[in-house]
Task: inverse folding
């Protein structure tokens, strides 16, 4: 006996995708052929697991391989800035390519393509964000912060802060303090 | 994963400024949707009506008839519904007093209106890019202050 079958590939793919997405508890909408819209924020970790699961069906997430790597670059940088245990004698570029196993040129191009900014700018942004936190929450002065974040001098940190935010660290501190006072008055 | 475009609103009573503003965004790499309003009353009516898609960044001119930028800022800061909007003051004034006052009142960005189109484009691109970083990286928006 022989069976003759007719396939609707589009429908099959949709069904597989839908089942897998449900299995991974990812809120989604299948937009069209080869495109899924995620309706919630999905961590890089979860996406990677989902992506691995799909390889059994020879389904590959095209765009998101890039996003995952970019997210890894960001995570590595954030960790590097906020976690003082990371080796400080290494340059950021060397540290990134060592940790992620790609050349710095590749990482750098990919990063700019996806995020509209460069790795260098992202590192500075993170450092300045950390500086803001330290000023406000831990009441550290700029000298202490410059030391903690491995700046060659206080002046360098101060200039970078001003260049990134347009205001000086002391103006920043003054504004946030006043803002808090204003808030506590109105509440 | 994220929205593909950024929603922008400008409230400004000067027609030329509104036009330059929209044109500048048209030429940027990042895709934006720009909406403009002539004054603070129209703006707040729009923002307060049900079903409105709130902007990612709102640009406020300080001197507008009927309702000024400062009044809009104050109103918005009282309503939790607006807490995710980055508020940019877009003004001809560059007095330190104005700048600090608006920051203290809760503005995130202060832009002195540039005199030429090229600078305007550069400035707006910087605002959108940095705001995008805050938005996509979960940075603490309470600490988001930018002066251009």
Result:
């Amino acid at each position: 006996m022989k069976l003759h079958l007719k396939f609707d590939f589009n429908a099959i793919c949709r069904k597989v995708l839908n089942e897998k997405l449900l299995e991974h508890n990812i809120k989604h909408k299948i937009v069209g052929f080869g495109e899924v819209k995620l309706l919630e924020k999905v961590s890089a970790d979860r996406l990677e697991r989902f992506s691995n699961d799909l390889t059994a069906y020879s389904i590959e997430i095209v765009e998101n391989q890039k996003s995952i790597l970019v997210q890894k670059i960001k995570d590595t940088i954030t960790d590097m800035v906020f976690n003082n245990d990371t080796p400080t004698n290494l340059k950021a570029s060397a540290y990134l390519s060592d940790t992620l196993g790609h050349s710095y040129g590749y990482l750098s191009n990919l990063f700019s393509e996806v995020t509209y900014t460069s790795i260098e700018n992202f590192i500075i942004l993170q450092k300045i964000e950390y500086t803001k936190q330290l000023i406000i929450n831990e009441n550290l002065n700029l000298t202490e912060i410059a030391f903690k974040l491995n700046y060659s001098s206080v002046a360098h940190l101060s200039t970078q802060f001003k260049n990134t935010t347009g205001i000086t660290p002391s103006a920043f501190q003054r504004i946030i303090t006043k803002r808090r006072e204003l808030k506590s008055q109105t509440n | 994963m994220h929205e593909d475009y950024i929603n922008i609103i400008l409230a400004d009573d000067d027609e030329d400024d509104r036009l330059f503003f929209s044109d500048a965004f048209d030429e940027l790499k990042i895709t934006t949707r720009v909406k403009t309003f002539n004054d603070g009353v129209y703006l707040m009516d729009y923002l307060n009506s049900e079903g409105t898609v709130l902007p990612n960044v709102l640009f406020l001119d300080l001197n507008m008839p009927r309702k000024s930028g400062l009044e809009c800022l104050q109103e918005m800061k009282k309503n939790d519904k607006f807490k995710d909007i980055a508020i940019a003051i877009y003004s001809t004034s560059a007095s330190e007093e104005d700048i600090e006052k608006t920051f203290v009142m809760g503005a995130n960005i202060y832009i002195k209106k540039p005199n030429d189109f090229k600078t305007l484009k550069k400035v707006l691109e910087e605002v959108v890019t940095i705001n995008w970083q805050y938005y996509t990286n979960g940075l603490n928006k309470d600490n988001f202050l930018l002066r251009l």
